[in-house]
Amino acid sequence: MPTVLIVDDEDTVRRFVGRVLHDAGYRTALASNGPEAIEVAERLGSFELLVTDVLMPQMPGDELARRLRLKEPKLKILYLTGYSDRLFKDKVTLWEDEAFLDKPCTAKSLKQAVSLLLS
Prior knowledge:
Blueprint lengths: L2 E5 L3 H13 L3 E5 L2 H11 L4 E5 L7 H11 L4 E6 L2 H7 L7 E5 L4 H12 L1
Parallel strand pairs: 1-2, 1-3, 3-4, 4-5
């Protein structure tokens, strides 16, 4: 079963995403910011998907994704954002194996996005 690292500075969002994906059968690990996510990623060893907020204190989601991809080049990324315009201001296009989902999202749309990225 794929392992998903979930990173969001909002506790309620982080727990919601974690619960939905855990209930869908994924192994999940949670972190509240970029630096913590890098530590969790090192403990995990390898994982298939990063689900990350875009705007977070200390380190934005796209920077976190870039750093984690240095060690895990095939890592798939799902950006969760209430500010998709901001994501595309800084990042003109998404790379292959990247997608984004507007917040708030439904459990169904979250599971569909994760399933599509991992298939």
